[in-house]
């Protein structure tokens, strides 16, 4: 997947460089830690958005990066809240995101029916 006709790594690098330059110029409200947190969030979001097939753990990374960014701006986000939101994201993907994409693999052996899938029993017996 491309963003503005470019690879995501190039976009991430450009955004990270711009934010770092702004922090180096002492832009009000943007310390070095805040710049790093913003860059981490942007990186996590772009990687999660552009990775196919969908990887739910990447979206949990976005949740964690958001918590770090909020902490950099003085908000108190507890570990329990981050874990609960991350768990909800995983549950949501399990219900709506990943499961609809998964189909059972067909049995490559010809003539094997569902009744012959017993453990320890050879087909045809």
Summarize the structure.
With 125 residues, the protein is mainly α.
User: So what's the overall shape?
Assistant: flat
The biggest sheet, with number of strands, parallel, antiparallel or mixed sense and barrel status, is:
none
- Sheet-strand content, in percent, reads under 5%
**Rounded average pLDDT:** 84
As residue ranges, the low-confidence spans are: none
Helical stretch tally: 4
In angstroms, what separates the terminal alpha carbons? 50 Å
Descriptive overview:
With 125 residues, this protein is mostly helical. It is built from four helices and no strands.
Q: How are the SSEs ordered, and which strands pair?
A:
Blueprint: H1 8-24, H2 32-50, H3 56-72, H4 79-98
Key phrases:
single chain, 125 residues, mainly alpha, 4 helices, 58% helix, flat
């Amino acid at each position: 997947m491309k963003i503005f006709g470019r690879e995501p790594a190039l976009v991430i690098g450009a955004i990270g460089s711009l934010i770092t330059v702004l922090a180096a110029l002492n832009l009000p409200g943007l310390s070095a830690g805040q710049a790093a947190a913003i860059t981490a969030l942007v990186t996590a979001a772009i990687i999660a958005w552009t990775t196919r097939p969908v990887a739910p753990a990447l979206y949990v990374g976005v949740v964690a990066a958001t918590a770090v960014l909020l902490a950099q701006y003085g908000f108190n986000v507890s570990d329990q809240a981050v874990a609960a939101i991350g768990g909800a994201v995983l549950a949501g993907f399990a219900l709506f995101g990943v499961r609809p994409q998964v189909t059972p693999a067909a049995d490559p052996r010809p003539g094997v029916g569902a009744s012959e899938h017993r453990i320890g029993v050879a087909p045809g017996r």
